[in-house]
Amino acid sequence: MRDRTKLLLVLALVALPVSGRLLWFHSGWYQPPEIPEIDESQIALPLPEYRPLADQPLETGGLVVIDLSHNNNLEVDDLTPLWDRLTARAVTIETLDDSSDSLETQLRGAIALLVIAPTSNYTAEERDLIADFVEDGGRLLLAADPTRPVPPEQEDEEEPLDLESIFFPSSAVPAINSLANAFGLVYFDDYLYNLVDNAGNYRNVKFTVLSDEHSLTQDLETIVFFAAHSLQTDGLSLVNADENTLSSLRSGETGLTAAALAANGRVLALGDVTALTPSFHTIADNDRFLSNIADWLAAASREWDLKDFPHLFRGPVDLVQVSEGSLDPRLIARSGTLQELFQQSRLTLSLRAAADPDHDTLFVGTFDNVDLVQDYLATAGVAIVLAEADEEEEEPQDTIEIEGLGTLGLEGTTLYVVDRSADRVVVVALAEDGEAAIQALERLTSVDFSGCVHGEGVTVCSTDEVQEGLGLEADRDEPGQPPGEAVTPPRVAARSEAEAAFEAQTPWLQELAPETYDLTSQAGETYTYTIEMDRSQEVMWVYGWCTVTQEQLAQNWENISLVFTLDGESVPLDSFVRLEDKSGDLECRTHYALLADWPSGEHELTTEVTFATAINDGLDDFPAGTHIFEYRVHVEESSA
Predict the structure, then answer these.
(1) Are residues 539 and 592 in the same domain?
(2) In total, how many domains does the chain have?
(3) What is the tens place of the pLDDT at every residue in 365-389?
(4) Dmax over Cα atoms in the chain, in whole Å?
(5) Using the 8-state DSSP alphabet, how is residue 488 labeled?
(6) In this structure, are 466 and 499 located in the same domain?
């Protein structure tokens, strides 16, 4: 067979199965389907409607504090729209940036407080301060949302991030509830969503069910929250969801609340933060809502009292000496410090010989010359009685009679009267002598009202001096002591003095004692320190507690209570300066006071520490119970 024939035969055999497969399975040539043209109008999502508002603010003034000391989950410009709205109303804004800063001091002159996206809990002390602030007329804005959880912590930059804390972050709802619950508000750990009618995403919820009972929702038709918590309140629900808006947690519930008022309209709670931020604040009627919030904050009317000094004054203030004759040089020396304090509070103070009737006034004087302020004393129900000596009574009893309080001796007493009856604020500060009157001014400067009682327009402070013939018999004649020789305790200095002494590293009581203890803070134990002084000296009275983390510190202190006693008398906690700072790698809170002017003799001080529950500082466990630090101080006779 020729080669050519063989080749053709091979090719035919190869092609035969292929041809057979094609003939058997082929059912026609491929015809591509007809592709219809897409109607973009049918698939385009509705874009959010932006409605920027031309704000028309009224300049009202005031101070607003923004709390950023609780690890707030905020970006740099998140609060810019609200900040701009407030400054347009002539409002001054201050931020509380660190937990060691004094919340009490910051709130003293404020009309409103903003708490937005906190991620660490508020302590019981902070809650009480804020509750008092709201009760006095201050306003509180709370805001939190599901997209702002607790940020992941990285203690060491060289260590890798904890992926679990990144992908499964802890909720910040407990942090906002640690404050909100004090006002009957509850944030739920959920998010609201609407699958029927939303703003481009099921978690971008439109709200059209708005209360018509408050100016905050005035002129609003629709607002949009972007991932919002639902709320519960015993006050007024401002923003409510429709029947198609549901909760990721509260199954089956409708009509859910996303914004509410509480505490007689002084606390506003929002379930969303994003709606306040650029550029989300311009969607729908959010911008108008933002302006309404700014108006509401700026319209707050605080009721300031003496404990808010000098913020109770509203205009220029005259400092006037209540006595005839030459001006006391000590008053001139102290007026500079007072002027600095007033300037920090955006007020002016001038030392004058007589009060301007158009100005607020601070009168300072002594009980033996009160003619200039007699009308203010009478209005407050106060009478100064200076008795004259006669043959039967060689030592007359000089007293203060206060309506509703009774009769007090002048010795060791300081009196403050606040009068607002003539459309201006007048404060009268009186004491037994010139030195005590200057100390009364210093008490105002340091806002130190330990050892004081407050009434309606009247504050009385005492140094515990017992005037013969007045007070309780036991105060003068203690068992085992000769009559008239009761123990006189050292002076608990003003907090401003204590701060300066602490900064100067004044020794602590336990540093002067020979005793040391390897282990303390055990329930039922008493730790005794004996201290010998050959003369009076300034000493710090200190108690501190440290933990590994700031969160542990806050949790521990919620279960720690302190009782200080000095020579048998309780010393109020507000006599002590509170300091939060680091000691090495530990987070610490310290309470300290300065003790000075020690009389000779024996003195006993105790610091009683109670752990309400077992606590852990990150290093050790400590049982519940009470332990005591006892300081026995002997001062030599020569130090009197």
Answers:
(1) yes
(2) 3
(3) 999 888 899 999 999 999 988 876 5
(4) 168
(5) P
(6) no
